[in-house]
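Schema walk-through. Below, the input block comes first and the output block second. Nothing else is stored per chain. Lengths vary across the set, and this one has 808 residues.
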Amino acid sequence: MKYQEIIDKMTIEEKAAFLSGKGEWQTREINRLGIPSIFCSDGPHGIRKQAGAGDHLGLNESLPATCFPTAATVANSWDTELGEMLGEVLGEEAMSLGVNVLLGPGLNIKRSPLCGRNFEYFSEDPYLSGKMAASYIRGIQSKGVYACPKHFAVNSQELRRMAMNAVVDERTLREIYLTGFEIAVREGKARTIMSAYNEVNGTYANENKHLLKEILRDEWGFDGIVITDWGASNDHALGVAAGSNLEMPNPGLGSARELIVAVNSGKISEEDVDERVDELLDVVMTLYVNAQNKKETFDKEKHHDIAKRVATESAVLLKNENGILPLKKGSKVAIIGDFAFSPRYQGAGSSLVNVTRLETVTDIVSNYDLQVVGKSPGYNRNGMEDAAMKKDALDLAGKADIVLFFFGLNEDSESEGLDRTHMRIPQNQITLIQELGQVNPNLVGVISAGSAIEMPWHHYFKALLHCYLNGQAGAGASLDIITGKVNPSGKLNETIPRRLEDTSCYRYYPSRERTTEYRECIYVGYRYYEKAAIPVLYPFGFGLSYTSFSYSDLEITNEGIRVTIKNEGELDGAEIVQMYIGLPNAKVFRPEKELKGFIKVFLKAGESKVVEIPFDDKSFRYFNINTNQWEVEEGDYVIKVGASSADIRISDMIHVEGTTDIFPYCEDNLKSYYSGKIENVPDAEFEELLGRVIPDGKWNGLLSENDAFCQMYYAKSGLARLVYKKLTAMKKKAEESGKPDLNTLFIYNMPFRAMAKMTGGAVDMEMVHGIVKIVNGHFFRGLGQVISGYFRNNSKNKAYEKLLARER
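--- output ---
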């Protein structure tokens, strides 16, 4: 081990304490051995270092930092160089603010458009997600700060996220939910990774040896540390044995005592503890050295300009009838929409950034050559109808040649801790769209939303610009595109379906009681829509430009492809060239085609370039569940190159030798998966896919420490049911107000065990067991255990602290 000399000097008490956080964001220092503390902070799209008391959900204000576009926005750029540049400025800000580990980027797969945290995730496609995440990581870590990709793994919903079992077959796990992390680790060289809250096939992610040891460390060669999501530890000892290093945020010393008991009982070995300590020491010591002589400030104006560049390159032009955009100079326009006055530019929850400055459309539109006839909010962002406000907007629309309408999802639609229940924007916005379209046919829409939305109203618009959540400089970015200062080049990182019912997991999402079954298998996003022939509104990879591009002269070799791209228009612009690969008549069921490469190329008007996209180890592989390894099926593969998944411009074939001797599936037993019609997969077929019996996720009448507070609906205790009703009422009131109560949402979905992981040592697991007894109807027995446990826990913590103090 690298730090054997220090480890030999550490007591078991110091080792155990070192593997847990000392506060909301910091690790424990051990001064007598020269071991410093390091600081972690949220920040996938901006640093959120809290100035005062720390809290996980961002309830307390953080230090000013640049709010860049969210990952769901930047993924629309399909530009890894841009991602790396963004990572560099994130790393620079983190370093200047005293942050050593940046908790991001998030690259969970957008299994369903309903996931409340999709705004933080890159894509429905693992290849695009992984490549973009790797670029962030390279940029962040180039500044001496470590990135922490999250949440590993199969974290696709917010509902009961800390008390949910993801039931998924091994092939789907590998091909869809782990491939992005594999790229992030192998190509990004991530030095830390965050384990997820949920169970994966019955074992919590943070103590899942298959994930943390067999795959992450042994197969991918990860040599950094695993950090738990905040409160994600279930059994700390099993986590340490599986390869998890740092339990966060601050479980007090109860977890340290658990480790010592586990070592003394033989549950785990001291060698397991020493390995985790050595790995953590390597990270702590390296980061401490990296932070010496750091700059104390960053260039706020420069970073604001970079945020604007990222926003412009990530906006997606969905529609542009009759070339209404870009607007002609001096166009007579009306600015309508509350988002023009108060933009929706980031999501809610632990990623909330306190901006250095914030642009609004209404404040900066005067800088553009437009004749603005007026500005009107038009609607209440909380969804309430306001007849006077609507009339003002309609009157204004009648005075303009063109209406610029700014709209989308409001704050309570997308948030950590809360999944959406539908894909619609607020009805008052839809009503206004319909009436605006009758008053003025030249309607240009600018959408703010962190994920896919239903758009049955899209025909009212001559043009639609989807800006996603585009950060503090998003207003200027959108106006630059609208006026033609910038040629749009973004393309969708996800499919926009016609309706929620068309999504592959509609009947399986978010979960059935304690389990969420991934019955749709590998058919996520465009993989499903194409295989099942489901029409969509806007396909994966789609985006318009103010110019046009042609594709020609496709050459395929064993190393990759070459193709000529020409800008056929009169404006300079950038095209995102996408390479998809499919195997017709495959013996192993698979999508029609899958993204296996892409490149963004800038071309002046009339210019042509030959671009190259290489094949790699992921181009032709699939995961064979019988041999438990990646293999290649022999066959004539179709290489399809185009402007989106639905706009293939040129294609050809290549024969690839196979490695498969034993095929994993019998088509007769898996007809749904071979056809792609997976909307109602029978139990027997899903069990055939899993290779085991479907676990029963129902509650059996008694709640355990791993059940969430919201399950007190089932409690035998009347007091517990009353608490459940109060929590539910608080949650409902917050939702009706238009602003989610993140603290209530977190508690609502939090399991009882988290009280021992999130209270700084005030509660330990003995007390949690007493609380569970109360909930299950044994009030006095449980109360006695809580009271006696409180005094025992307090006494043990004091004794432990004295021991650590003596050794310091």
